[in-house]
Design a protein that fits this description.
The chain is α/β, with parallel strands linked by helices. The protein has three domains: about 210 residues, FAD/NAD(P)-binding domain; about 120 residues, FAD/NAD(P)-binding domain (3-Layer(bba) Sandwich), CATH 3.50.50.60; about 110 residues, FAD/NAD-linked reductase, C-terminal dimerisation domain (Enolase-like, domain 1, 2-Layer Sandwich). The protein has 14 helices and 24 strands. The chain has a five-stranded parallel β-sheet with strand order 3-2-1-7-19. A hairpin with a 4-residue loop joins strand 12 and strand 13. Helix 1 packs parallel to helix 8, helix 3 packs across helix 4 and helix 3 runs parallel beside helix 6. The mean pLDDT is about 95.
Length: about 475
Amino acid sequence: MNTHDVVVIGGGAAGLTVASGCAQLGMKTALVEREHMGGDCLHYGCVPSKTLLHIASRFRSAAEVRRFLVQRDGLPSELTPDMSAINNHVAEVVDAIAYHDSPERFRSLGAEVFLGEATFRSANEVEVDGERLSARHIVIATGSRAAIPPIPGLEDIDYLTNRNMFTLAELPRSLVVLGGGPIGVELSQAYRRLGSEVTIVEMAPRILPRDDAQLAAVVEARLKQEGVHVLTGNAVTRVDSDGRKKVVSVGSGSSRHTVEAEQVLVAAGRTANIEQLNLDSIGVAVERGAVVVNDKMQSSIPHICAIGDANGRFPFTHVAGVEASVVVRRVALHAGGRVDYSTVPWVSYTDPELANAGHTQASAEAAGIPCRTIIQSFSAVDRAHAEEGTDGLIKIVLDRRDRVIGTGIAATGAGELLGPALHAVTGRWKLSRFRKALTPYPTMGEIYGRTVSIELAPKLFNRRTRSILKALFRYRGTGPVEA
């Protein structure tokens, strides 16, 4: 007889959602976590990084406000961050959230919590510190960690990852970031704003390669404006250390040079935490270091599911939550449910933020969907002028029937602005529907109505329309002078 109805391996966002739902619905639930309840997102990812970004933005604001001061006496000549105070604040934010993910809370919900590493002994049984747990359903939600590229010399130096980046005793005077994805770019901007000399090295032709190229360029321009050095199309060939500094050898084609820095941060993607599970012995299929699943979250052994970063689909906490909800529906409620990835939103929390919902122009074209795009600058929005954010862009992707299939925004607060686009993509709105909502003035949210107005204006305000209206209603105006 099985010890439990369901065993959940991993106490991050995905696993906690399954354990909470199944336990509260009456299933005898075992939750296994080998390190920290809350996972990387709480302790080493989303929460500490966004807290650090907030602090860094305050430093940026403090530096910029000086140009509006008349009396500058008594101000420090430089803004020097106290890393101890910053680390303490980050820890306080994490601690404030941690109770919601604590073993005590999940035990109060009815789950049994086992703190230790799980290993499969059969398709229905896992072992945790010598104790055997078995169930009809097993859910793998073990998350991921920073991928360490096989660069000669890298393993010989004391490099940084998101695991130790938020506990630095001192601000690094200089920092080389290996990787121009969201994690690398966010932390590069944060540490530059705190005062580090920062260089990003990215193998791809541009940073943020998952995002629309035109929108990513807005972020790159801001990074360079703030003093971040961006080396794209460059591969790291070797890393050395002389004890005082790290020497990173980079190259593009026949060109070779070195970048020296006090610290090296590895932000070259993520890899799933599945090696310890002994999946080969039970026949669970693995590809590219992640568990292969269908849209029901089932692995090659149907009663074993894999969700969150463990399945390698989308490394986002909100996606992990949706995948977990599908598993709860199927396992606890015996209902249907599949994950639709076509409308997945994501945000890079840079300044300006870069947010996307649904298709980019490139992904729509790759999928063979006939489309056109509308691009509008935030210079059309008065609030953007007030907040010095006119470099922002919105890019709306439309199908052949003018339905919104994707929207990307590069602007201050782009993640918060994404709401209407999410409704449009999931509801298959036509572009004109953006004008139906009355938006308060002045707000950045006016961008949607302004975009539609500018797009539709030539179709309404033209010589033919004027001629028809003059004939019908005997108007006497001439309209604008047309070249």
